[in-house]
Amino acid sequence: RKEVEQDPGPFNVPEGATVAFNCTYSNSASQSFFWYRQDCRKEPKLLMSVYSSGNEDGRFTAQLNRASQYISLLIRDSKLSDSATYLCVVTYNTDKLIFGTGTRLQVFP
Amino acid sequence: EPEVTQTPSHQVTQMGQEVILRCVPISNHLYFYWYRQILGQKVEFLVSFYNNEISEKSEIFDDQFSVERPDGSNFTLKIRSTKLEDSAMYFCASSVMGGNIQYFGAGTRLSVL
């Protein structure tokens, strides 16, 4: 089983739509959780950390379910500039980042 | 805004040659990392480095790879004898402390011919 699994997509949505991405992780001892964004041929950039209580940053909402080993990202009111690959990332007992393969989002006008 | 810088942006080399990829981490950061991403695949951890020594390395980071902090600003990744399968994007990252957010450089695209 992969350490971090994501639906590769692509998700094609119109501007203004709400879209949700899911991610599962295999190690129940995972400690930290993040969503990174990666544009084509660019570096990963931190979008947001994910906390047990769930957290929101503008149009973005992240949730963590430790019991199910599941992380989600919700994007409301999608913009063309949201088009990118969204990477689910976890750490275990070190600061090594473990990446999922990413979910590609394409927002169209 | 401070950033991690990497040079060169693209390196082309012949199989069997040595390459050195360079990184300048953010100035007050103490933890340094190398990751790689083969085209179309996920980002993979290679090595972490703190206090002038390797803290952790992955199975990918074999004897052909080494890292060094030759001075107070640079952090380098050396591949002694490149293979075709070393072709990838190599990202350097740094963080203030272990467990803190890691900031990535723009990457070096290594093409081994």
Describe the structure.
The complex is a heterodimer of chains A (109) and B (113). Chain A has strands at 4-6, 11-14, 19-25, 32-38, 44-49, 55-57, 60-65, 70-75, 84-91, 98-99, 103-108. Chain A is mainly β and 109 residues long. In chain A, strands 2, 4, 5, 9, 10 and 11 form a six-stranded mixed β-sheet that branches. Chain A has a five-stranded antiparallel β-sheet with strand order 1-3-8-7-6, with no helix packed on it. Chain A is globular. In chain A, 34% of the residues are buried. Chain B has 113 residues and is an all-beta fold. In chain B, the strands form two sheets. In chain B, strands 2, 4, 5, 6, 9, 10 and 11 form a seven-stranded mixed β-sheet that branches. In chain B, strands 1-3-8-7 form a four-stranded antiparallel β-sheet, with no helix packed on it. Chain B starts with a strand and ends with a strand. At the A-B interface, strand 5 and strand 10 of A face strand 4, strand 5, strand 9 and strand 10 of B.
Layout of secondary structure:
The complex is a heterodimer of chains A (109) and B (113).
Chain A: E1 4-6, E2 11-14, E3 19-25, E4 32-38, E5 44-49, E6 55-57, E7 60-65, E8 70-75, E9 84-91, E10 98-99, E11 103-108
Parallel strand pairs in A: 2-11
Antiparallel strand pairs in A: 1-3, 3-8, 4-5, 4-9, 6-7, 7-8, 9-10, 9-11
Chain B: E1 5-7, E2 10-13, E3 19-24, E4 31-37, E5 43-50, E6 53-57, E7 65-68, E8 75-79, E9 88-95, E10 103-104, E11 108-112
Parallel strand pairs in B: 2-11
Antiparallel strand pairs in B: 1-3, 3-8, 4-5, 4-9, 5-6, 7-8, 9-10, 9-11
